[in-house]
Amino acid sequence: MSDAAPTRLTQLDGLRGIAALVVLLCHSVAVFPSLGQIFLNRFAPLGPAETWAVYSPLHVAWNGTAAVSVFFVLSGYVLVLPFIKRRSRVDWGAYFARRLLRLYLPVWGSVLLAVVLGLLISRAPLADIGQWVALYAGPVTPQSAAASMTLAFGGTTLNPALWSLRWEVVFSLALPLYLAFGLVARRAWTLKILLCLVLTACGSLLNSEPLIYLPVFAIGTVMAIESKRIAQWRVSSWAGVPLLVFALVLLNAQWIHPTGVYAHEALVALGATVLVWLYLSWHGAASFGNTRVSQFLGTISFSLYLVHMPVLFAVVAASSASLPLWACIVSGFVASLIAGVLFYWAVERPAHRFSVWVGKRVRDRLERTPLTTSEARS
């Protein structure tokens, strides 16, 4: 059993690819000092152009945090769906072996890439560009490499984007509990989604990352378990566009107003939920998700997410003395896309195949064990 649904929902691959592109845009735009400073101080003074870029609907195109919420809902949905469609017993040993290798092998590859780039190209020039990129101007250290490879502490200065993989691992390990939550009291599935949103709001108020992010995976879990019910909620062509606008406004809740929105993480999670539902239930969104560009981005989305920050920082640091900043950023953007493609073919795809092979071996071994024991007793 793979990590994807037996009948692959390709439009969700496209949505994941678009979300990965948004994250790349977010970090590329943040290299500009006037825009990167808002991640450190949202009340920092901005010029007219920067104010429009930050506090207008345009921000949704580079709202990386909202894109990660979309990732989390998608992970909850796609990872759980095969368990619902599979009627035989679950081979948890095979699942854990396959899933952890599927996550960690590409992560280790991206950390190795970040270490090599950090040793070849000093990040010191980043300190002269802006306050945000200056946070990642430090040298490569064994401590940062080890922390990045374990994912125990989230992202590091070596590869900051790895922060979200910490929660992917926690969700993957806790999947039996998520399944139990989704399967209990199934008639109350809408209330369970509401409970997840309330928990996320509480996490926002308490500044608790586990409470903010882990319930978002549960939303995707409930949606997968109730996929047949949700499939009946088809969205007509006239309703699709207003619902899409509604989802995008919610996803951008953090940047609707300079003073912010109270407990905006819950609104962002709701926006991600509506967006995933639209890709499942509205022909317009599904068609866009199945375009060649979206599918290409979906194929390399995990690789692109893993490598884009080390590559972007390396290119900007290496070229900042000879090129205008905008040219450095464009070069880093393009290099990140190329690196994502190369990393997919060289690392992620082989790692995925290896994880599937290991999962099958573990499953076969577990299935043979009872027979071997019985024969030994006879």
Give a topology summary.
Blueprint lengths: L9 H20 L3 H4 L11 H7 L9 H22 L6 H29 L10 H4 L7 H9 L12 H11 L1 H9 L5 H18 L2 H17 L1 H5 L5 H15 L12 H18 L1 H7 L2 H28 L5 H53 L1
Shape: globular
Q: Which class do the helix and strand fractions yield? A: mainly alpha
Rg from alpha-carbon coordinates: 21 Å
Helix content: over 70%
In a nutshell, what does this entry contain?
This protein has helices at 10-29, 33-36, 48-54, 64-85, 92-120, 131-134, 142-150, 163-173, 175-183, 189-206, 209-225, 227-231, 237-251, 264-281, 283-289, 292-319, 325-377. The protein is an all-alpha fold and 378 residues long.
Explain how this protein is built:
With 378 residues, this protein is mostly helical. The protein contains 17 helices and no strands. Helix 1 runs parallel beside helix 16 (292-319), helix 9 (175-183) packs across helix 11 and helix 13 runs antiparallel to helix 14 (264-281). The chain is globular and about 60 Å long. It starts with 9 loop residues before the first helix and ends with a helix. Residues 1-6 and 371-378 have low confidence and may be disordered.
